[in-house]
What does this fold into?
Amino acid sequence: MWTIKWQEFPKIRSKEIPMFADAENDDFTGVPHSLEAEEAVAGVVLLCPELLQTLGLSEDQFYIHRLRFIWAAYQALEAQRQPIDTLTVCAALQAAGHLDEIGGPAYLTSLLNQVPSTLHAAGYAEIIKGHAIRRDLLAAANQLARQAYDTSLDATSLLSQADEILRRVGQGVEQKILTAHDVAGEIYDEMNERAQLLATGKGLPNDLIATGLLDVDRLLGGGLQPERLYVVAGRPGQGKTSWLISIARHQILKLGQRVAIFSLEMSAKQLMRRFLAQDSGINSAKLTSGVLAVEDWETFTESVGRMGNSRLFLDDSPGLTPVSLRAKCHQLARGAGLDLVIVDYLQLMGAGSGMRFQNREQEVAYCSRALKLLARELGVPVLVAAQLNRAAEMRADHEPQLSDLRESGAIENDADVVAFIWRPEQDGNRSRFKVGKNRDGQTGLVDLFFNAALTRFESAAFASKK
It folds into this structure.
């Protein structure tokens, strides 16, 4: 007799709609499922146990409750490296108290006669997975319907929660696992295409987004890469927001890119004044006071026209959460499209009222991970400002380190690139930009020129030629 560790037996989960039924007594008309496919795939494993791992099914994807119990027994036996046959499965079900519930050994034996062909096992499994996804969508629809009747939720929160609910359903869809042959072959094809382009004198394809700061681009290997999370950190007053706006201005006015800025620190009008100052060359203090000289009006009007025609999107909503950010970004991506997402700044984000964490560090870690996943989903760079603690101020040269990132070490882990910005002399124009972590490239330090009157960053070499 084999010893079965039943504390490892998978738990059976319930759903919002009736997710399993008794095949003989319950009326399950209308609920997506296939009794024939479920019984066939259960019988396949009894005939060919080696197929269990290849089918990629879990017990909660079965609708008929006794077949769920049987599949859970298969998985428990497989996990303990025990053989799977009618004898061992009966023993496992008996120990779990489910043998009589499934109809006894006779039902297990009958499954052997429900297999049209073991060669079609993968097809039966796909039928089961498809019905499971449909049941999950029905459960999600029920949940969304209840929330839609809840008048305490505003429309934005409702849409954000709807997007999150559907995202969780999507996570249950099996993702294709690539083989080394597939990936290596894809890289070979890319390299071969580049070689042919070079041989014919054509330019190489480039999906990098230049920042407009030449020294920074060299340090980053040519610019911002898609699907990467970039964190630019600094102490208050060191120019993080101005640096982000300098990058965004280059994207929208020089490259015609579509950029979304989510600001938790400044209003949309404050951000736009900085854009106008950088673009027009008019002192930002004049734009803040609202008093312009007569000779400034023509330049100001032209700048307003350029910014108004750009593809810049501003969001200064308070209480931004990863869920609401994701919903808004996907809405933009489906509509106008997106090339770059900017968030200012990370530590002002909250996880949302429905989330509970033991401390603030865990909450920031959750937000950081969500931003990384957002970059992967959208296929664009996500550029995020972050605060540093006071440790850098205690050093003679004020140079930040990775350990200075405030409230969470997860920021360093999630980010593909972590950069720091600071001004060695607070009243001077010299600013320093340091890449402290670069997952796919070099680290290093460059000098930038900060035009305080225009709140604009420029390459130091370019500024010196003026």
In short: The chain has two domains: 6-171, 214-464. Residues 1-28 have pLDDT under 50 and may be disordered.
